[in-house]
Amino acid sequence: MHSLHDLLVHDLQHLYCAEQQLVSALTTMAAATASPRLATAFKDHFRQSPRHLSRLEECFALLGTAPGSCPCATVGGLLADVQAMTVRPGTGVVRDAGLVGSAQRVGHYTMAAYRTGVALADALGQDGVAALLRETVSEEEAVSRRFATIVTDDIHPAALQSTQVLATG
Asked: How many domains does the chain have?
C-alpha cells in the first residue's frame, strides 16, 4: 500500500466482502429468532444489503477499480459467533438477546469501516464516493437504533421475565 487511494480501495474491498458475508448470516439470524419483530428487523436489513453492495460497486467504478475478493476475517469471526448463537440451546428470548448483540457487533464494525471510508474519500476529494458511503452509514445507524429499541422494549424485558419464572419455578 503506497497511498491513501490504495488504502481506500483496500478498505472498500473488505467492506464489499463483509457485506457479502453478512447477507447469508441475516437470513440465518431471522430464522433463529423467537421474536417476530426482531425477525422482521433482520429481514429488512437483509433487503438493504444489495443496496450497500451496489453503492460499493459504484464507489469502485468512481475509483477506477474492481471489488476484487478478499474475505473479511474480522466479520468472518463475528459471524462465527452469530452462527454459534443460532444453535445454542436455551430460552428463545435469551438467544434473541445474544443474536441482537452479535448483530450489533457486526454493525458497529461495518459502521466504523464505512466512516473510515468516508474520511479517506473526503481527504482524497472523492466527493461521490464519500456521498455513497454516507448513505450506507445513515442506513446502518438506523438499523442500530432499531435493534436497540427492540432490545430495550421487547427482548430484555421478556428475557428478564423468563429468567425470573425459571428462578421461582
From this structure: 1
Tens of pLDDT, residues 47-76: 999 999 999 999 999 999 989 777 778 888
> At residue 54, what is the residue type?
S
Q: What is the CATH number of the domain that holds 100?
A: 1.20.1260.10
Can you give the pTM of this predicted structure?
0.87
Could you give the CA distance from residue 112 to residue 153 in angstroms, rounded to a whole number?
26
Q: What is the dihedral of CA 161, 162, 168, 169, to 10 degrees?
A: 150
C-alpha cell at 81: 459467533
Owning domain of residue 149? 4-168
- Residue that has been written with the C-alpha cell 452479535 in this structure: 102
